[in-house]
């Protein structure tokens, strides 16, 4: 028997940041394992997991990221409010995602977390098939990571959130109410957030 189809949901990748700490667009950095850009690596991982409806939220580096995604079947979603921070990019992506489906879920991940595995993405997606949670997230070694799946009912909460706290404030409140499902995964890639030149240098440094 073939694999059960990926649960019907759009997936968005947030790539609208300024990359100030990195000093160059993180989305375009080569991922060492494949030597493709971070953004292409994330899209490939999502495709390998079975996702079909993909959108990449961009900002100041829109043209460069759009060029890097040529040949990759993903919608490039320029966020005119990218300067307002990550919450604005998440909302832009979620609104697009929920406009693509009548189903209750949209998955969101970050372009600077390119090390997640396809099977992890699939595990988080499959967790939407049962339960009435408003968000589902992976956990590893006592920390939470990406990708995160948001239920449509959470969108108004995110829209009303304090931009200074962003989605984390909403997630903390939902978790306190028991409305978040945490899925423990054996995948440190869900936590590999590459923000600085030092972190990238450590990533590409030979381990032998």
The chain-level mean pLDDT equals 93
> What is the overall silhouette?
globular
Stretches with pLDDT under 50, minimum 5 residues: none
Coarse structural class: alpha/beta
The oligomeric state is: single chain
| Portion in strands | 15-25%
Radius of gyration: 16 Å
Task: Name the helicity range.
Answer: 25-40%
Main features:
alpha/beta
Kindly summarize this structure in a few lines:
By secondary structure, the chain is α/β, with parallel strands linked by helices. It has helices at 38-49, 62-68, 86-99, 118-126, 155-159, 166-176, 197-204; strands at residues 11-15, 54-58, 75-78, 105-110, 135-140, 143-144, 148-151, 180-184.
Describe the overall structure.
The chain has 208 residues and is of the alpha/beta class. It is built from seven helices and eight strands, in the order βαβαβαβαβββααβα. The protein has helices at 38-49, 62-68, 86-99, 118-126, 155-159, 166-176, 197-204, and strands at 11-15, 54-58, 75-78, 105-110, 135-140, 143-144, 148-151, 180-184. Strands 1, 2, 3, 4, 5, 6, 7 and 8 form an eight-stranded mixed β-sheet that branches. The protein is globular, with a radius of gyration of 16 Å.
